[in-house]
Amino acid sequence: ASSRKRSLDPPDLPPPKNPHVASLRTHPSVYQGSFPFYRLPSELGSFSLDEKRCYHGDARRLRFLSPPAGMESGAASPGWDVMEGFEDRYVRRDEDQKEGLLHILTWVTENRALLRGNGNPEGKRPVDRDFVTWRGHLTKILCSPYESQEGWILAVTLFKGTLYISERETAAAYRKRKEQTREQEKLRYSGYKFESYMCADSPDGAPCPTEVVNTNEGFCSVLLGRLASHSFLVSGEVDCKDPSSTNPSPPSCYVELKTSAEMRSPHQERSFHRYKLLKWWCQSFLLGIPLIIAGFRNPQGRIVSLEKFRTSEISRLVRGDRQSWDPAVCMNFCNAFLGYIKKVVTTDDHRVVFVFSWEPGEDVTFTIEADSDQLVVPDWYVEAISQ
Ligand code: A3P
Ligand code: MG
Ligand code: MG
Predict the structure, then answer these.
(1) Residue 71 has what pLDDT?
(2) Are 260 and 276 in contact, with CB atoms under 8 Å apart?
(3) Strands in the chain per DSSP E
(4) Are 329 and 322 in contact (CB under 8 A)?
(5) ipTM rounded to 2 decimals
(6) How far apart are the CA of 256 and the centre of ligand 3, in A?
(7) Mean predicted confidence (pLDDT) in 263-281
(8) Which ligand is nearest to the CA of 218?
């Protein structure tokens, strides 16, 4: 705790007056109903992070899908070893370095002209969106009604009319990360290694499976989207572009790559539908990525089959299962949560952070840091955007 943190006495900020604003329920039964309006996000720009995690305002780290022959017919059984290189060709991003919204905010400051509001009586918003956040944060929100293991903490600041949402690592997530076993670490590596087998550096290039897997690197798309009355700017990491896509404009030409354990029983298949497909759908649907290519690995760590999942068809795959999930519940909850944030966070000040937290089985609640030492909107950004 910091000595700069002040308590919230009335002269600073009044406590929320409306008791209905105090907490938000997450149980799926509350959010059943029709699917809310969701506009297919449109790409406004992109950026890349290099092997040293340095930002570049271009697409230099975008990769291109280069699947093996036979994938279309479902005949491909590539046999790739996705554990290979773990010992000597793996550079891991330092996850103790918390970047927050850094790269998105960098992109925003470099592309301010694209985001300025069209003058309204109260003055323009420099970023004419209700929310700015990472796709990964929205994925967590979407999955909450069905999540029974991991809670989250989302820090929110209202600055010049826009709400910025950034994640804080929970104590449980920190412990889990620090106590990761070698086997878990290898599994994590294998997801990235799969990308090395499937992607090339140029549209007509070939994959280079002997390359170093460096998880500092990435390509991120920046998109504008809308969910019901909430407009947002969202950025998310994109695995690759399909050069042969029938619709060459982003995000329709993007492809998400995934790995999963080969399924050998109806029980494993059910659990794949209930848990994995939920997360896969949320992640890809949010950015409008239409296609997911999954590599299934056997216990020896080899990819034994490849399967395509159309994002738009995933909900049909899980619909028959009574204990399954409903995409409308995910989106209705997200809509409600964003509305809840708008009701709660009304102090427009970059030093004030509203910390929303949630644990499975509980409601979403919040606390306020009136002079936070963990800012969502850093001083450098305030200065840059005010110029
Ligand atoms: P898989 O997706 O094949 O599991 P993404 O799929 O989102 O593009 O992420 C690429 C890879 O990063 C994942 O591959 C996985 O290996 C690793 N990864 C991402 N998020 C993770 C998490 N929360 N826990 C463990 N591994 C993760
Ligand atoms: Mg990825
Ligand atoms: Mg992926």
Answers:
(1) 85
(2) yes
(3) 38-49, 55-56, 64-65, 90-91, 131-134, 152-159, 162-168, 199-200, 213-214, 218-227, 230-237, 240-241, 254-261, 291-297, 303-310, 353-358, 365-369
(4) no
(5) 0.90
(6) 5
(7) 96
(8) 2
